[in-house]
Amino acid sequence: RLHCHGNGFGAAQRADQVERQRAADVEQSARRRDLHDRVEVHTCALGALPDQSARDVPGRTVDGLVGRRVVRMLAIDVDGLGPEVLEGARDTLRRGRPLVWIDCPDERAYRAVAAVLWPLGYRVQDMQDCSPTLLFAPAAPGVGPVDDPGVDAALRRLYAERRTVEALRGR
């Protein structure tokens, strides 16, 4: 399992937003649970291109971190910068066909994530929370990319309703 948390890497990335304390907490938790030999913690800015640093934070790609290992699940919570992280994970996605939990806080983010994952044969399988965090799963072997108009329409309604609520709150 690979969990990406923070602000990913992109135009909005600021080095002071990288959560170094969270990394230390994860390492300590792994030691307490005797999982330290199975947990790796990297404090870096993940994105589409390797070696793009954000000030004092090294830039990496998921593919660069994973190497040839097979990942079964990606959990990406990077404040809407998921498409950039996914671009840097294409080999990992093709090789292991992992489940992908990813935050899609607005329709723009959803469309950008889908633009990366749909051509690779992924489709939305589940939704968690109202953020929403979406589960994209690969289609069965031999099945081409799946475009589910029902799920797409439901997500468009969810995002439209959210915009309406935000507009009403702003009055």
Beta strands, count: 7
Task: Give helix % range.
Answer: 25-40%
Q: Judging from the principal axes of the Cα atoms, what is the shape? A: globular
Sheet with the most strands? Answer: 5 strands, mixed
Head-to-tail CA distance between termini = 43 Å
**Helical segment tally?**
6
Reading the helices and strands in chain order gives EHEEHEHHEHEEH
- The largest sheet has its strands arranged as 1-4-5-7-6
Radius of gyration: 17 Å
Poorly predicted spans: 6-18
Overall average pLDDT: 78
Helix/strand-derived category reads: alpha/beta
Strand content: 15-25%
How are the SSEs ordered, and which strands pair?
Layout: E1 2-5, H1 20-32, E2 45-46, E3 59-60, H2 62-66, E4 73-77, H3 82-87, H4 90-96, E5 99-103, H5 107-117, E6 122-128, E7 133-138, H6 149-169
Parallel strand pairs: 1-4, 2-3, 4-5
Antiparallel strand pairs: 5-7, 6-7
Structure description:
The protein has about 170 residues and is of the alpha/beta class. It contains 6 helices and 7 strands. It has helices at about 20-30, 60-65, 80-85, 90-95, 105-115, 150-170; strands spanning about 1-5, 45, 60, 75, 100-105, 120-130, 135-140. Strands 1-4-5-7-6 form a 5-stranded mixed sheet, covered by helices on one side. A hairpin with a 4-residue loop joins strand 6 and strand 7 (about 135-140). The longest helix has 21 residues, at about 150-170. It is globular and about 50 Å long. Residues about 5-20 have low confidence and may be disordered.
